[in-house]
Task: structure prediction
Amino acid sequence: MPPAESYAWDSLAVGTDLLVFGERERIALRYSILTNSWTWLADAMNTPRVSFGSASVGEKAYVAGGAYSSAEMYDSKTHTWTPLPSMNRARWKCSGAFMDGKFYVIGGLRSRFELLTCGEEYDLNRRSWRVIDNMSRAQRDRRGSSSAPCSCEQ
Result:
Protein backbone atom coordinates (compact mmCIF):
# COMPACT_ATOMS: atom_id res chain seq x y z
CA MET A 1 0.00 0.00 0.00
CA PRO A 2 1.33 3.47 -0.77
CA PRO A 3 2.45 5.40 2.33
CA ALA A 4 -0.40 7.40 3.78
CA GLU A 5 -0.72 9.00 7.17
CA SER A 6 -3.85 8.02 9.08
CA TYR A 7 -4.60 6.69 12.53
CA ALA A 8 -7.85 4.94 11.59
CA TRP A 9 -8.36 2.63 8.62
CA ASP A 10 -11.39 0.77 7.30
CA SER A 11 -11.63 -1.52 4.32
CA LEU A 12 -14.10 -3.52 2.28
CA ALA A 13 -13.79 -6.00 -0.58
CA VAL A 14 -16.05 -5.73 -3.62
CA GLY A 15 -15.76 -7.46 -6.98
CA THR A 16 -12.03 -7.78 -7.65
CA ASP A 17 -11.12 -4.68 -5.61
CA LEU A 18 -10.15 -3.92 -2.05
CA LEU A 19 -11.12 -0.40 -0.96
CA VAL A 20 -9.22 1.17 1.94
CA PHE A 21 -10.31 4.36 3.71
CA GLY A 22 -8.33 6.49 6.14
CA GLU A 23 -9.94 8.98 8.45
CA ARG A 24 -7.23 11.60 8.22
CA GLU A 25 -7.46 13.86 5.17
CA ARG A 26 -10.13 11.63 3.62
CA ILE A 27 -7.69 9.08 2.24
CA ALA A 28 -9.14 6.50 -0.14
CA LEU A 29 -7.26 3.79 -2.05
CA ARG A 30 -8.27 0.91 -4.32
CA TYR A 31 -6.25 -2.28 -4.72
CA SER A 32 -6.96 -4.39 -7.81
CA ILE A 33 -6.22 -8.11 -7.55
CA LEU A 34 -6.31 -8.24 -11.36
CA THR A 35 -3.43 -5.79 -11.84
CA ASN A 36 -1.76 -6.17 -8.42
CA SER A 37 -1.71 -2.39 -8.10
CA TRP A 38 -2.86 0.43 -5.83
CA THR A 39 -4.71 3.53 -7.06
CA TRP A 40 -5.46 6.72 -5.14
CA LEU A 41 -9.20 7.32 -5.43
CA ALA A 42 -10.61 10.59 -6.59
CA ASP A 43 -14.01 8.88 -6.47
CA ALA A 44 -14.16 8.42 -2.69
CA MET A 45 -17.44 8.18 -0.82
CA ASN A 46 -19.88 11.07 -1.02
CA THR A 47 -19.71 11.26 2.78
CA PRO A 48 -16.21 10.30 3.97
CA ARG A 49 -16.52 8.01 7.00
CA VAL A 50 -14.70 5.48 9.17
CA SER A 51 -16.01 2.94 11.68
CA PHE A 52 -18.93 2.22 9.35
CA GLY A 53 -20.90 -0.94 8.60
CA SER A 54 -20.32 -2.46 5.17
CA ALA A 55 -21.15 -5.51 3.08
CA SER A 56 -20.81 -6.46 -0.56
CA VAL A 57 -22.58 -8.70 -3.01
CA GLY A 58 -21.19 -9.26 -6.49
CA GLU A 59 -19.92 -5.98 -7.91
CA LYS A 60 -21.75 -3.75 -5.40
CA ALA A 61 -20.78 -2.67 -1.89
CA TYR A 62 -23.01 -0.99 0.67
CA VAL A 63 -21.80 1.28 3.48
CA ALA A 64 -23.71 3.04 6.25
CA GLY A 65 -23.03 4.80 9.50
CA GLY A 66 -19.61 5.93 10.63
CA ALA A 67 -21.24 8.50 12.98
CA TYR A 68 -23.85 9.33 10.33
CA SER A 69 -27.28 8.02 9.41
CA SER A 70 -26.38 8.28 5.72
CA ALA A 71 -25.64 5.31 3.46
CA GLU A 72 -24.32 4.73 -0.05
CA MET A 73 -23.66 2.06 -2.64
CA TYR A 74 -20.41 1.55 -4.56
CA ASP A 75 -20.39 -0.01 -8.04
CA SER A 76 -16.99 -1.59 -8.68
CA LYS A 77 -17.55 -1.73 -12.46
CA THR A 78 -18.16 2.00 -12.85
CA HIS A 79 -16.20 3.08 -9.73
CA THR A 80 -19.09 5.31 -8.68
CA TRP A 81 -20.85 6.00 -5.38
CA THR A 82 -24.63 6.42 -5.22
CA PRO A 83 -26.35 7.89 -2.15
CA LEU A 84 -29.00 5.68 -0.52
CA PRO A 85 -31.83 6.75 1.78
CA SER A 86 -30.60 7.49 5.30
CA MET A 87 -31.03 5.06 8.18
CA ASN A 88 -33.36 5.94 11.06
CA ARG A 89 -30.45 6.38 13.48
CA ALA A 90 -26.88 7.63 13.16
CA ARG A 91 -24.37 5.03 14.39
CA TRP A 92 -20.64 4.35 14.37
CA LYS A 93 -18.52 1.31 15.13
CA CYS A 94 -21.36 -0.79 13.74
CA SER A 95 -21.32 -4.01 11.72
CA GLY A 96 -22.74 -4.71 8.29
CA ALA A 97 -23.94 -7.86 6.53
CA PHE A 98 -25.70 -8.74 3.30
CA MET A 99 -28.24 -11.56 3.47
CA ASP A 100 -31.28 -12.60 1.43
CA GLY A 101 -31.07 -9.53 -0.80
CA LYS A 102 -30.96 -7.08 2.11
CA PHE A 103 -28.23 -5.00 3.74
CA TYR A 104 -28.13 -5.09 7.54
CA VAL A 105 -26.41 -2.57 9.80
CA ILE A 106 -26.21 -3.86 13.35
CA GLY A 107 -25.42 -2.35 16.73
CA GLY A 108 -22.77 0.28 17.12
CA LEU A 109 -22.73 3.40 19.23
CA ARG A 110 -25.03 6.41 19.28
CA SER A 111 -22.55 8.28 21.45
CA ARG A 112 -19.40 7.38 23.31
CA PHE A 113 -21.39 5.83 26.17
CA GLU A 114 -24.60 4.69 24.47
CA LEU A 115 -24.68 1.28 22.81
CA LEU A 116 -27.36 0.76 20.20
CA THR A 117 -29.15 -2.54 20.78
CA CYS A 118 -31.05 -2.30 17.51
CA GLY A 119 -30.19 -2.88 13.90
CA GLU A 120 -31.58 -1.71 10.59
CA GLU A 121 -32.46 -3.59 7.43
CA TYR A 122 -32.22 -1.96 3.99
CA ASP A 123 -34.47 -3.46 1.33
CA LEU A 124 -32.82 -2.87 -2.05
CA ASN A 125 -36.10 -3.28 -3.96
CA ARG A 126 -38.14 -0.94 -1.77
CA ARG A 127 -35.21 1.44 -1.16
CA SER A 128 -36.18 1.80 2.49
CA TRP A 129 -34.87 1.01 5.98
CA ARG A 130 -36.68 -0.95 8.69
CA VAL A 131 -35.66 -0.82 12.35
CA ILE A 132 -35.06 -4.14 14.10
CA ASP A 133 -35.25 -3.50 17.85
CA ASN A 134 -33.65 -5.54 20.63
CA MET A 135 -31.06 -7.34 18.51
CA SER A 136 -28.55 -7.43 21.35
CA ARG A 137 -28.23 -6.49 24.98
CA ALA A 138 -25.67 -4.19 26.55
CA GLN A 139 -22.26 -5.76 27.07
CA ARG A 140 -19.77 -5.06 29.82
CA ASP A 141 -16.46 -3.59 28.79
CA ARG A 142 -13.06 -4.91 29.90
CA ARG A 143 -13.14 -2.81 33.05
CA GLY A 144 -16.42 -4.42 34.11
CA SER A 145 -18.59 -1.34 33.67
CA SER A 146 -21.50 -1.38 31.30
CA SER A 147 -22.65 1.33 28.95
CA ALA A 148 -26.26 2.38 28.91
CA PRO A 149 -28.03 0.64 26.03
CA CYS A 150 -30.47 2.54 23.87
CA SER A 151 -32.92 1.51 21.20
CA CYS A 152 -33.44 3.06 17.79
CA GLU A 153 -36.36 5.16 18.96
CA GLN A 154 -35.79 8.82 18.23
The domain at 50-150 is CATH 2.120.10.60 (Neuraminidase). The two ends are 41 Å apart (CA to CA).
